[in-house]
Structure to design on (258 residues):
């Protein structure tokens, strides 16, 4: 890597739509971090409270197996999975801690080759039961704007069984100097009857500065707490609509499925 990449804060929305057995949709304003972890290893960002307290912070232990260096964990995972060409930047799209609290329904790790192409993407999923699972996407079909697929093996919602197939699609727009300007991650779920859920998270990216951190905090001071409250509110709405309920199964033995 030549010029170090700069960390970003994204301002956008989380969108969700259920198609069956009743239609149910919502859209919420949100913000998120997009962090170039390899660049940050050598060039820390003054505006990022990393592994320390702050109004808005990032904690490595919120990812992977909970260690003090999330990037080292991810790099080891790539090696263990036989992915040896991810020699470019590693970007992590994730929700920050706000006022010390966080819940991350999903984070996305983007592992690039030196030429900027995607070598792998890891979708790291947390459920409200304190469990975590990761879906590793790799291979020649992986690329910006291309759909890629993974079997669903991890319980997320009591209103959706474990089964079916996820369809992932990632979009990224960049400035002339290669800095990300807009990003969207789309995840849809299909089961034996066809399309079931459509979701996305993304938005416009700005430099991670003290001014933009204040903009995020003052605009949505309880954003991450709101994520958890909204999950339970939407669950109550689905229960009222009498959407079938699925009991929680045992979590998968393997942390990563590919």
């Amino acid at each position: 890597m030549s010029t170090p990449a700069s960390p970003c804060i994204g301002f956008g929305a989380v969108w969700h739509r259920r198609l069956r057995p009743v239609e149910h949709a919502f859209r919420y304003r949100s913000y998120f971090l997009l962090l170039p972890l390899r660049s940050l290893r050598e060039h820390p960002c003054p505006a990022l409270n990393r592994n320390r307290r702050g109004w808005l912070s990032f904690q490595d232990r919120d990812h992977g197996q909970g260690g003090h260096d999330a990037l080292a964990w991810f790099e080891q995972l790539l090696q263990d999975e036989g992915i040896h060409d991810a020699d470019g930047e590693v970007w992590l799209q994730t929700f920050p801690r706000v006022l010390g609290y966080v819940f991350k329904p999903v984070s996305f790790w983007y592992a690039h080759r030196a030429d900027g192409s995607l070598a792998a993407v890891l979708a790291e999923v947390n459920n409200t039961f304190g469990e975590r699972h990761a879906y590793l996407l790799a291979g020649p079909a992986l690329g910006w704007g291309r759909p890629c697929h993974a079997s669903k093996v991890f319980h997320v919602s009591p209103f959706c069984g474990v089964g079916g197939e996820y369809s992932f699609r990632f979009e990224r727009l960049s400035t002339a100097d290669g800095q990300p300007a807009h990003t969207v991650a789309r995840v849809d779920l299909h089961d034996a009857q066809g399309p079931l859920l459509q979701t996305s998270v993304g938005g416009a990216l700005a430099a991670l500065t003290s001014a933009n951190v204040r903009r995020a905090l003052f605009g949505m001071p309880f954003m991450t707490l709101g994520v958890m409250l909204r999950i339970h509110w939407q669950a109550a709405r689905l229960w009222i609509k009498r959407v079938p309920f699925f009991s929680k199964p045992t979590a998968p033995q393997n942390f990563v499925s590919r």
Remarks:
- Residues 223-240 form the longest helix (18 residues).
- The chain has a mean pLDDT of 94.
- The longest strand covers residues 194-207.
